[in-house]
Structures are given as structure tokens and as C-alpha cells.
Amino acid sequence: MIEVKGLVKQYGNHRAVDNLSFTIGENIVFGFLGPNGAGKSTTMNMITGCLSPTEGEVLINGRSMFTEPEEAKKYIGYLPEIPPVYEDMTPFEYLRFVGEAKKMPKNSLKEKIEAVMEETSITAMRNRLIKNLSKGYRQRVGIAQAILGEPPIIILDEPTVGLDPGQIIEIRELIKKLGKSHTVILSSHILSEISAVCDHIMIISQGKLVAMDTAENLIGSKDHEKRISIEVKGGRDKAFSALSQVEGLYDLTADEGEKTVFTARFSSDNDPRERIFYKCSESDIPIIDMEIRKSSLEEIFLSLVAKNMDTQESQLREMAERKKKEGES
Amino acid sequence: MPALYKKELRLYFVTITGYVFLAFMLLSTGIYSSIVNFVYYSPSFEFAVKNMSMVLLIAIPLLTMRVFADEKKQRTEQLLFILPIDLKGIVLGKYLALITVTLIPAIVMCFYPLILSLYGVVNYKTALSTILAFYFLECALCSIGMFASSLTENQLIAAVITFGALLVCYMIPSVTANISPAYAFSFKAFSAVAVLIALIVFFASSSIPAAVIVGLIFEIPLLIIYFKNPTWLSGKFTTFVSCFAIFDKISTFVNGVMDITVYVYYITVSALFVCFTVQSVGRRRWK
Question: Which of A78, A88, A98 is nearest residue B15 as measured by Cβ atoms?
């Protein structure tokens, strides 16, 4: 349904999006995750035709966004980061303009607008000027604009920003509902929101695709590290020195509190529990509890982003060294 | 495009802009007509229309400043790019709404010759052809204002750019009277224009070779003419500058000559600046 091939956006010397390629199928909720300035909004703007890419192609149902934009845009509803609403219009007038511009049939336009307003809970505000609406209601008007005309693809950039907790839950439910019959792409900084709503997650950092999979696969992936929590009986220092000698354990820290609890990391293909048991037994330290904790989405996100930044930094360093050597020779 | 046209037209009248423009234009028409026709006892409405053109220096920037600048500032420009409307449709929708608003005072103006006919002999052909030329002038100025609005997100800056451009066009007739007809001056002035065009190309494309090529395209023929037949250049710069005297063209109608080329001139200017606006709005998507 959405095919992105080698998408690049260059701003002077800065590459905001770097050779991004992915495909998104039908009827799924797809989460876009990345730190600030990762290129999420730029990518979304290019997918929706708001921004032209430096290189690459975007195909929407086989239609190129850059050679057949009018055709491709018919399949898309988009809510940008800041809702594009006209302040001097009422929600109804605004949605009527959007519906007419989307070339929706005139005879059913009013009913469709009423239905969308009902769905986004803005019916009570239909005759108020948008400039007099709260941020949350403006956001809802923006969402209503995106879903009007039932486009098969709905792209929402930070749709819950500015909403109160009740409204956030409502919008999440709406997104889930839309995901049953539409492809929804959702960008958010809130990791819990992404994991609660999305079927698939894509993590981008510094314009590059870092990971793309289901939330379960990302969390359960063998490529990622796991955490272990060990509770022992006895002196903290003695236990720390014993555990720090266990092979494959790293980032060992003692938790604060009355109990002697330690947390450490290990590679998921190198289970250290047996070694911990023998080491503690050898040092005469009774183990009270030992629990492996899977990494949360937040930890995976941070580690992937950090890994990508490290890789890029080392590449830059290598390049700088190579240039220096070339200059010397 | 029709949806955008309707929305734009509506916005002029839900905000104060449309009403201020209409009030300003109608008040000015009344004042000029009172002075020219009633104080001086002349039934020729065309003279009032000609004097009215000065009012456009203020009225047009006021009307056009928000067209694209406000869309960019409010971030609603993004909505226009999302909707299945092409760039030409976006610009034409907005331009048609603009010239519809300017049509209203032009229609009201058509009643003035009828009123004046009660007090004297009115030449309807001259009066109506002048009003038509005045409307076409408004259309051309609107296209310039719309282009200026597409260059910035600040309405005030858009208004200042439009006012500056229109003021230069307004002052051209008095400036051309003082331009030297000497061929050496024409050569130097045309060379300066070539450099200016090359600079514009450089800022638009960020390409030095493109700017140099464009500069040379203008400069080489100029050099050939200068060395082969320099007298041909005499007075040519004055003629060239006179082409931009957009306000002055309307004088032809006041003198009783219905010059179709003036209408063609105004339509050409309008088309040219509409095309420039399409390019300017399209260029934003590359940024």
C-alpha cells in the first residue's frame, strides 16, 4: 500500500532523512518512533506530498506521490504536527471546505461531516469559530479533517499532543478502530502510546531506519540485551564483589533500599543464572530471588538510538582520520 | 479549485479585509468623482478613474498581503499541499477570489456614468472602456501582490514589498523623463540589468554556472550591438523602462482611444505573475 524507496532529504550539509526504504501493508497501525530531530515529521511530510524529497520515491497504492500527486493524495488523510485549521471558520465550515476539496459527493457530504464530527466528539463545537476552541478541540478538528472521506491511509503526526488523559484514551480507541479498516501511521514520542496502539513499530534515528518490527518481536528480539535482578542475603560489598566476577554480567548496580538487590545486564544469548548460582554458592551468599526482566520498549528504543549514534560517530571519526592521513601523505 | 475559490472568497468577508477594501475603494471613488465631476462640472468619469489608480497603491497591498503569507504563518499551507489540488489550482483559486473582490467596486463604478448622464453628456464608450482597463489594472496589480505574499510569511513585509513595487511602477513616467537617451548610458544601464538578472538566477538556483550563462545570454548580444551599431541603443533604455509603467497605460483610454493592446498588456502581466507565484509556492516544497 505504501512503498518508500531510497528517500533522502538534504538541507544544505544536513541530511534529515537518509536513504529510507520500507513498505507498509493494509489495515495495520504503524508506529513511527524516534527522538526529536530524527526525521519523523520530514518523512511524513514527504510521504504525504507536502515536501519534495532530494532523492527517492513514494508509491501510494502504486501511484507515485511525485509524478501523480493528485491521484496519490486521494488515498491519504494527514494530520500534521500542528493542526492546519483556519481560525476564522467553524469546524463545520472547515470540514465542508476539506470535503469539497477532496471532491466528495455533494449529496452525502453533510452526513459524512456529521458522522466524522460525532466520531471525534466535536459536534457540540460545530458552530464555534476555531480560534475560540481549546488546543484539544483544535486537535480533534485536525483529526476529523484527516479521516473525512474515509481515505484508506491515515497519517497522524503526534495526534494526542495537547489532549487531556480522557481525550487521549478516546483518540487511542479511535485510532485502534480506524486500524481495523485503514492503514494508520502514527508518530509519537510517547512510547507507551505506540506500544498500546501500534501493530508494527519503526524506529528511526538521525534520518536512518534503525529497526522495524512488531512490538513483541522488538521486545523479544535475541539481538537485545536483558536485565537480571538478584536478591541475596548478606553484606552488600561482599555480594557485589562476588557478582562482579560472574562472566557475561555487566552494568552491575546495587539497588537502594533495605534489601540487598542488584541489577545487571547480560546478552540474551548468554544466560548467566547458572554461573551466578555457583559463584554465590562458592562465596557463601544465599540467593533469595533471581528474576530475568525483558527490556522494555523504552530501553530498546534508547539502546537502538544510542547504537546508531555511536556507529555514525565512529564512521565520522574514521572519515576524519582518513582525510587527515590523506592530507599528511 | 472551486472549493478553494469559495473558501477564499468567504474568508474575505468573514474577516475585515474584504469590507475595508470595498469601503476604501468606494469612498475613494466617491471623493474623486465629487472633485472631478461635480466640483469641476465635468461629465467625464474617466478622469476620476484615472486619478483613482493612485488609491491602488494602498488598496492592493492591503488586499493581497495575507493571500499566501498568512497560510504559511498559520501552517494551513500544509493543508493545501495535502489536499488533492495541484499547485496551479491553489494559485488560481486564490487569484480568482482576489479578482472577484476587486470586481465589486468596478461594477459599482459602472453606475457613475449613468448618474452623471443626468447632469451632462456622457461618452459611455470611453467611460466604460476606462473602467474595464482600471479593472484589468487591478487584476495585474493583484497578481504582483499575490506573488509578493508568496515570498514571505509576514503579512506586513508582503504589503511593503507590494507597495514598493507598485510605487516604482507608479513613478516610472516621471523617472523616464530624466533618463539620458545617449547610447552609452543605455549600454551601461542594460548591462546593470543583465547583472541583476544573473544575481536573481543565482539566488533562485544557487548555481554560479547558471547565473553566468544567463548573464552572458543578455550581455553578449548587447556587446555585439554596442560595437556594431551603437546608435541603435539610443533611447532604448527609456523605452524599456516605460514597459513597466503599468499605471500610465490607462491614460490612453482617458484620451478617448480604446487601445486593445493595453488590455493584452494587463492580462500578460497578470499571467506572468500568476506563473511566478506557482513557481514560488512550488519552490517552498523543496525547502
Answer: A88
**B173: its cell numbers:** 513616467
Q: Is A131 on the interface with B (CB under 8 A)?
A: no
| Residues present in chain A in total | 329
Q: Is the pTM of this model over 0.80?
A: no
C-alpha cell read off for B47:
478622469
Please name the residues in contact with A159: beta carbons below 8 A apart, sequence gap of 6 or more.
A79, A139, A142, A143, A171, A175, A186, A188
pLDDT in tens, B174-212: 888 788 778 888 888 888 988 998 998 888 777 888 889
Taking contacts as CB-CB distances below 8 angstroms, the residues of chain B near A84 are: 74-79, 82
The answer to whether the complex's ipTM is over 0.90 is no
* Cα–Cα nearest to B106, from B22, B175, B170: B22
- Cell 592530507: give the residue: A327
How many A-B residue pairs are in contact by the CB < 8 A criterion?
A: 66
With CB atoms and an 8 Å threshold, state whether A49 touches B82. Answer: yes
Q: Phi and psi of A15, rounded to 5°? A: -100, 100
Kindly tell me the burial class for residue A105, based on how many C-beta atoms sit within 10 Å of its own C-beta (0-12, 13-18, 19 or more): exposed
**How far apart are the C-alpha atoms of A112 and B82, rounded to whole Å?**
19
Among A17, A42, A46, A73, which would you mutate to test the B interface (most chain B Cβ atoms within 10 Å of its Cβ)? A73
pLDDT tens-place string over residues A238-279:
888 888 888 888 888 888 777 888 888 888 778 889 999 998
What's the mean pLDDT when you consider all of chain A?
A: 83
Tell me if A89 and B14 make a contact (CB, 8 A cut-off). yes
